[in-house]
Design a protein that fits this description.
alpha+beta; Aminopeptidase; seven-stranded mixed β-sheet; globular
Length: 176
């Protein structure tokens, strides 16, 4: 993906960016991604998430938002929460790593995570934590990037598209 660009969203990013991110999240949830939402998942709910939760956190400096674009189209994103309690100020937490279903298995998520780790180092963080649905496609990606498993919690979250509860795997990486 030679046309892939990763950029940090500016605090004053136009609302149009969040509309594109809403479309990205909407597509991911409808493709089965376990990222906090369940079907039915209308576009209005996706837009509320970005404009009501993410945008204010980015503007306040408590969250880093990276956007992956190809030819000017948003195809992925990653978020790192850095506004954590004082006893956890040394770490960041990956909030959501999203790759549009049409662009998966092309290195987008890997590039986003690598850039997110660089941002974390730039903020003086020495630890990144995250959770992912156990057995999901993201789990081997995180392992290949050096993330270690801290533990698994059964029945952690309702599946986005079925009447079942899935386990989640907590992972971490110490940054050099």
């Amino acid at each position: 993906m030679s046309d892939l660009a990763i950029r940090k969203a500016r605090p004053d990013a136009p609302e149009a960016l969040y509309d594109e991110l809403a479309a990205l999240l909407h597509a991911c949830v409808h493709a089965g991604a376990s990222v906090s939402f369940i079907l039915p998942f209308p576009m209005a709910e996706s837009r509320r998430f970005w404009l009501g939760k993410v945008r204010p956190a980015v503007q306040a400096g408590g969250r880093i938002l990276l956007v992956a674009e190809e030819r000017g189209r948003v195809i992925g994103s990653a978020q790192l929460d850095i506004d954590l309690p004082p006893n956890q100020a040394h770490r960041g937490e990956v909030a959501k790593l999203l790759t549009h279903p049409a662009y998966r298995r092309r290195g987008v998520a890997r590039r986003l995570m690598t850039a997110l780790e660089a941002e974390a180092r730039g903020h003086g963080l020495g630890l990144i934590t995250l959770d992912t649905r156990t057995g999901d496609n993201a789990e081997p990606l995180y392992r290949s990037l050096g993330y270690a498993v801290a533990g698994v919690i059964p029945s952690f979250a309702k599946a986005p598209d079925a009447e079942r509860y899935d386990a989640t795997t907590y992972m971490y990486k110490m940054l050099p």
